[in-house]
Fold:
Amino acid sequence: MAVVAVVVEKMMRPVVCMITAPISAAAFAEEALVQRIGAAARAGTHLIQIRQPQFEGLAFMRLVQRALEAIEGAAARLLVNDRVDVALAAGAHGVHLRGDSMTAARVRTIAPPGFVIGRSVHSVAEALEVEREGALDYLLFGTVYTSASKPGAAPAGVEALARACGAVALPVLAIGGMTASTLAPVARAGAAGFAAIGLFADAAVDAMPQEVQQARSAFDTPVRVP
Structure:
């Protein structure tokens, strides 16, 4: 297990990850997103993944840098989705890799110490394969439930999540349809935490602490042994 994975593992359960919802390139939309990122960090979110595939080059790097300023003083770590170059250039805390991204082992050779590397997986077999390759700090497993962000995608279900959690040593976060009402089964499945888009995008900025606390409370239950 990578050294940083121990840090992720020791974060207070559950590990809470915000994934940003798509926005336009308009200045007011960017400003609102940066404010929301700052609010999520202050509310106790551990990981914030910037996923804005429509942003490119300098505009994307500027957004990441503004987000880093917004979370300054909080314990949250800022990750960039897929774009290793932007993450490194902007000074982000890590990167989240897709299935077709650069390998985690390759990223580790060019990343600074303490750089967090996560990866999306969709099956137990895939989770085992990428864990064997090494260099990862956590896995993001899904889609667990039907999700508006993945229309048409068949949900893997909680039982598949439980099998993945029991098969690998890496912390596994659940994604897909994560709401206050669906998180208790996720907790019982042994997930180290969860990642969500809608939960953070739909909440009022000033209500973010209550939303995060409500989601966290679903994990106040014994972990099921797979």
The chain has one domain: 3-217.
